[in-house]
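Sharing a chain and its predicted structure for anyone who wants a worked example. Both blocks are below, sequence first, tokens second.
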Amino acid sequence: MWFARRMLSLVGALALAVSITFVLLRALPGDAITAQMRISGASAGSIAERRTALGLDLPPLHQYIDYWIDAARGDLGVSLSTDSP
């Protein structure tokens, strides 16, 4: 019983940490794709295309749900620096 309570509190703490991080990152102005591609001199169209491909044009709640579904499957996304899984 002790182990089950500890695991449940661990899952709760992890969910809270991920949720707080998600909200704080969405509160910042701009996003990583826009900043990264502007440095490389990409056009506005290619920036919009990349944001759409990564789902950054979706509403925040949809992004949040998608993140949890993907994380449950073990898919933590694509690296923005190396473009690898």
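Comments welcome. The chain has a mean pLDDT of 85.
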